[in-house]
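#onboarding

Welcome to the new folks! Below is a worked example of what a typical request in this channel looks like: someone posts a single protein sequence, and someone else replies with the predicted structure as tokens. Don't worry about understanding the tokens yet, we'll cover that in week two.

Example request:
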Amino acid sequence: MQDIKEIVQNIKDVVRRRWLLLLITPLFFVGAAVVALQYIEPKFESSTSILVLKDETLNPLVMYNMGASSANEDRLNSFNEIIYSRTAMEMLIDSLGLDRTLRTESEKQLLISNLRRNIYTTSRASDSFEITYRDTDPVRARDGTSILANHFISSRLRLENRTNEETVTFFSNQLEQLQQTVDELRNQQTDRTSTRLQDIPSDTNAMQARLQNVENQLETVEWDLYRYEDMLTAISNYKEAAMTADGIQYLYRLPVDETPFGSELSELLSEYDTLQQQFTESFPRVRSMAVQIQQLVNRIPPAIESRMSTLESRRAELNEQRGRVVSDMQRFFVATQQAGSSESSLRIYEGLLNDMRVNLEQAKMTRDIGRRGSEQFMVLDAPYIPERPSSPNKRLILSIGLLMGMIMGVGLVSLAEVMDTTIRKEADLPYPKPIIAYLS
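Example response:
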């Protein structure tokens, strides 16, 4: 107990002697934090929520009650590909006027990277997405969020319209095939149902899973073809510009990771950009680099077209798989109808023919709805102008400054006490000698 009292008394003595140091150090760090806050540029944050509505007529197999939606993660990945694409970033730069101070393509690439770090996306449900954009200007934060939301909606509409057109074509072909089958049965008047119903798949869950898998793969292939078409467009614009500096700017729009010979092209463009800042276009080395870039670009379209040809073949194969799955479903439907009645195969296929006509009308209706477009998307929370910056967190920074100042103050006091050689009491004497006098 006596030791504790002695320790407490020693601490009080130290505080009494070093109170000025304990006070000044936290004030210094808090002041430094206040000064730092003056140099940290505040950022404002705005967000919006988009709900993608799905009508039952959008499902080409609504007659079988087998509609299935994509997985949440797949939808979020597709959403992020659109939002973080280079097209979206360039649209954001042009619309917000962020390219006014840009002088080189390298600065533009850095700006695109910074923009992507200021965009955040989340998925609240399978068809609900949220976009958040941060900027130093609150008005730009709201406008940027609105631009990204509109770009997502327009991109999704283009893809869905293409899918709807293919669905109409698919059902038209199926209807034509069924019509031919019905005509043959009317002419022949023979019962071929028994042979067609052999080995019919009976697991409806498996058929649903197969159909869903094929639909997801088709969506991925369509998106890849869309991106390759954009690459070919950029290369075509470059060739039309006849190797000028403005024409080469189109090549910077090509995604390096996905473009054939992308890494080589990136190196040539980087070197060309460096030379162009130092010399004019008539400089021999600059012209030589332009020729090398043109030669390399001429090798890219065949590679892209080869990939697109592979994707086209893959899409045709997937459409065939989808046709086989639908055919299995039709055969299953025929089998269930045949098991409960003694109707002839002619009547059964006539029923299928009528159902297919209904499906075709539904697909056409879906296509017409898709052309109106905006009705499929609902903005739950409109972008807003933030009143207060989201960063920096002044309270947190000041608290950290105060805490660091207190820690540093205690450290400096401890160091001062260790370095202090003043003798204040008998225990501080370095030698065990008798005391002959005290100085008050």
